[in-house]
Specification:
Elements (H helix, E strand, L loop, with lengths): L4 H6 L1 H10 L3 H10 L4 E4 L3 H17 L3 E4 L1 H6 L8 E6 L5 H13 L3 E6 L5 H9 L3 E4 L13 H14 L13 H5 L5 H12 L7 E6 L4 H13 L4 E6 H8 L1 H6 L3 E7 L4 H9 L7 E5 L3 H23 L10 H7 L14 H11 L3 H6 L3 H16 L5 E5 L16 H12 L3 E5 L4 H8 L5 H4 L2 E5 L4 E4 L14 H11 L2 H6 E5 L3 E6 L5 H15 L5 E4 L3 E5 L6 H10 L9 E7 L15 E6 L18 H9 L1 E3 L4 E3 L8
Parallel strand pairs: 1-2, 1-3, 3-4, 4-5, 6-7, 6-8, 8-9, 10-11, 10-18, 11-12, 18-19
Antiparallel strand pairs: 12-13, 14-15, 15-17, 16-17, 20-21
Helix pairs in contact: 2-8, 3-8, 4-8, 4-11, 4-15, 6-7, 8-15, 10-15, 11-15, 23-25
Amino acid sequence: MGKPYEGELEVLSRTYEWALQAEVGDLEAAVRRLSKDPLIVVGSGGSLTAAHFACYLHSLFTGRLARAMTPYELLSSPVHLGELGVLLLTAGGSNPDILGCLESCVARSPKHLSAVCTRLDTPLAALASDAGWVSFHEFGLPSVKDGFLATNSLLATCVLLARAYRRQPDGHMPLPPRLEDLAHPGRDASAFRAALSEACRPLWDRSTLVVLHGQVAHAGAVDLESKFTEAALGQVQPADYRNFAHGRHHWLAKHGATSGVISLASHRDMPLAKKTISLIPEDVPVVQLDVGDGIHGSLRAIVLSLYIAGEAGLARRIDPGRPSVPTFGRRLYHLNAGYAGRARSLPAAEAAAISRKAGASTATLQARGELPPWREAYATFRGELEGKEFRAVVFDYDGTLCDAAERYDGPGPAVTQMMTELLRAGVQVGIATGRGKSVRKDLLARIESPALRARVLIGYHNGAEIGTLADDSQPPPGRRLDESLEEINALLASDARLVALAKIEAGSKQLTLEFRDCTAAEEVWESVQQGLSRCQAAGVTALRSSHSVDILAPGTTKRRVVDAIRRSFGSGTSPVPVLTIGDRGRWPGNDFALLQEPFSLSVDDVSADPSTCWNLASPGNRCAAALREYFRSMRLGDGFVALNLGSGGGR
């Protein structure tokens, strides 16, 4: 099993150069989306080293928390993923742990889910494709598959991630052009290996190594422990310089004769590292390695780990790339009992709905004694929803009828068929959108029947203008900006920084600030809030979507579409029940008002109100996929539609 480790080290330079040239534009875009939130990075074996490196990058460049986890650790964690990003790292994309972890993550619906794999056409890629919303990035390494230990795949993953995080607008390459310039600047490969071999020689008659490190070299220390343990090269105890001082030094007091120390110090660590090393007993051999600072230092620490493992293998006559793996080890690797058939305390659909609504996992709610009232609220809402016959359904457009990838193309065939069947059954269809004429253009191309077009009521610009799809007069062109928005429009347009972050478009009763980059969302939102505070415009509101901020004149709301539909049915003894479906139900989402209707469903974000705005889609389904699931649960009658969400059946 495996291949000679020295052969793998020989092609590291070629792998590094390939990783510097590989196309990472899509990965950069994924990193920008992940950069807005805390991050969990998942990996096993060598990919766990890459996960720690990714955490360092995320904290360094975004200032946000990041945590490395193994797949089973994340699977077992009660952490609610709804407001977190998750990044999965894998070399081969086929081991049962990463496959099970992806399935679990999809079901738990993190805010963003991305994966990086250094092989093409893997089972993981197929699973990600089936989910429909996972940001999957696969790369075909020029080198052959790793041996027993992660080497070239580890280096490639780290370089790709470093490039994605440290993108340079001027195209400048943030990393040295050659691995030699990173790992041993000023020395050729043979001189570097000779010097490293000589420095480490006193360590090889010691069975235990204590690896001291700071933040920069943390991933390298993790990798040394991984390499030495997996290849049975010896015991490694990693510790940062100050945690070592809290009792871990006692190991050297009792086992100094069988222990050695490796110090991986950045320039910032160096004063502390030198003082620490000066206090270690003289009979304990110490190897001091200066790794440098920042990304270069963290990558160099990982590369040094690869070579140190090679030196240990040569000295101890163990090839780390092809150790003799026992049968029980192979069976352990392919064991998937941790992911299949796990016992559930609640049905999966109920647990997912409650977790989305409460913003906490059901395990956390159970521990706090809060699960029973949420179960009661879920049962009450679902029972009332399934007991109604709706004469009208009002949909949000972007994120509901259209996925993000369909935003400029319009609804897909399945959604178009869904709307057509509702209309043919005599159900009134409403669409409430923040957009204008582009929505009408897309829908005219999909609904050709004049009679059906007359039954589609569209509220353009968040309900500012309302007309049927057949109505050529709506939305009206060239209307003057509402007086209530003039001051805030002038204020925002004069902000050069804001104009650089967002494109500002003025309608009649709406200002739209479309993000030029998704990472600008928070800054744009804060600028809008500050502007509104300064203007003190009574009744003017601001709402958010995934791609823009809308500022609305007083009285402008998507619920005007619902009100117009109700008026069209006449005034009875009680309001006509209308089903509303959107994707941004949590304040300040642009569907918040629409989904405050008593019978509302979300295909993504939900409000905190336990009486309405639930997301009842199956775990892992979101946006148009969730909408298609809702439609499969619809029963069409003569002029009405009802839902039976438990069946998922046809109409």
